[in-house]
Amino acid sequence: MKTFPIGGIHPSDNKQYSKEAAIERFPIPQVVTIPLAQHIGAPAVACVAKGDKVLAGQVIATAGGFVSSAIHSSVSGTVTAVDMKADAQGNMKPCVTIAVEGDEWVEGVDLSTTLVKNITLSGKEIVAKVAEMGIVGMGGATFPTHVKLSIPDGKKAECLIINAVECEPYLTADYRVMMEKGGELLTGARLLAKAIGVDQIYVGIENNKPDAIKALQVLAGSYLGIEIVPLKMRYPQGGEKQLIAAITGRQVPSGGLPIDVGAVVQNVGTALAVYEAVMKNKPLVERVVTVTGPKLARPKNLLVRIGTPMSALIDYCGGMDGVGKVVAGGPMMGRAVSNVDAPVTKGTSGVLLIPTAESLRQKPDTCIRCAKCVEACPMGLEPYLLAKLSKKEMYDEAEKHYIADCIECGCCTYSCPAYLPLLDWLRIGKGEVMKAIRARATKK
Description:
Elements: E1 23-25, E2 31-35, E3 45-46, E4 53-54, E5 59-62, E6 71-72, E7 77-86, E8 92-100, H1 123-132, H2 145-148, E9 159-163, H3 173-180, H4 182-196, E10 201-206, H5 210-220, E11 226-231, H6 240-248, E12 263-267, H7 268-280, E13 286-292, E14 300-305, H8 310-316, E15 323-328, E16 335-336, E17 350-355, H9 356-359, H10 372-376, H11 383-391, H12 395-400, H13 411-415, H14 422-443
Parallel strand pairs: 1-14, 9-10, 9-12, 10-11, 13-17
Antiparallel strand pairs: 2-8, 3-5, 4-7, 5-6, 7-8, 13-14, 15-16, 15-17
Helix pairs in contact: 1-4, 4-7, 11-14
C-alpha cells in the first residue's frame, strides 16, 4: 500500500455511524442565508437587493476578482436582506437572505439523473464554465477551482489526482458520492483533466473503503487514463502534499504548490460539482453533508441547499441531546461551532456532534520535550517550537522555521501527552506570517 514518507497518526476513523447512510435529499428550508465569502480570496459582490425575486441557480453575487467565486441562489423566492450575519464561529459576514417560495430554476439547468459522458467543450471552455458556475474546492479549502485549473506560465501539468481519501474521521460524504455517483465523479475527473491538458488521472482512496475501490475500478474500465490507487490508512493521507508524495513519489518543495511537481489535485465533491456544472449547466448550490456523532439518533449523509441552517440538519437527525460541542467538518481539522443557526456553505463537508463527556479539553501541562509532535508532523516541522514562537509573537522567527508549511492537520495536538493546544498556536502564528508574506508581495 502506498503512503507518504514521514509523520502521520492513526486515529479511529469512526465512519461506522454514517457509512451506510445513503445520500438523502434534505427538505428545502423556509429561509436560506447565503454568505458572499464561501471561498478563499475576495468575497463576491452582491448583484441583488432587498425585494428582488430570484430563481434557484440565478447569480446573486459576482466574483470580486480573479481569486474569487460567483455565488448563486440555491432556492427561488424573495430577497429579504443583503446585510451582515454571524457565521459558524460568530464572525459577522456579508450575506444574502432569501425567503423561499417554491422551487423554480433558471432556464437551462438539467436536473435529470441521466449520466452524460460525451465531452464536447474545449479545455478553455471547461475552465470558463467552472468559473461561471461558482465551483470551489469542496474538500474544505474552498479555493476557486477555475484558478487551480489556470496553469501559470512556465508551469506544466503532468497528471490530475482526485483526492478520494476522506481521511478525516467520521466524515463519509465523499464515500457516498463514490458509491452512488461514480460515473458522474469519473466524468468530472475527465473534464478536469481536459481543462489542464493531461491524460493521466489517479484516484487515491484509503484502503478502509474497499467497496469504493472495487466499484470505481470497475467503472474506470470504460474511461481512458484513469487509475484507481489504493492507499494505506494513515492520517493525513488526504493532505495535498502527502497525497502527491504517496501516488507519484514527488515532494512539493517548501513554499511550493502541487503544480511545481506537475500535479493538480481536486476533491471528489469538486469533481462531481464540475460534472454537474459542465454537463448539466448546474451551479454549485447544494452539496452532500455528513451529519454524525456517537450520540446522534440518526446519522445521515444529506444533499443540502447552500444557506440551510446547520440547526435544521441537527434537528432532522435527532437533535442535541447529550452533545457538548458541534464541529463544522471533522474532529481533526474542523472548527468548533458557536452559532448552530449559521448556514451550510460550499465548504461544509460535515456537522459533527461530540458528546458532552468528550467535548472538554484536558488541562494543558508543561512540555516535556518528548518530540512526539515532531515525529507525528507530516511536514517535518517542529510544532513545539513553532507554538512557543507564536505564543511569544516571534513571527519572524516562526517564518524562518517554516510555519507557513504547516497544513493544520492537528497531528501535533493529537499526539501531545501534555495536552498542549499546539494547533491553535500554529494557526495563529501561520495566519500572522501569511499576512506578512502577502504584504511583502503587495509592495513588490
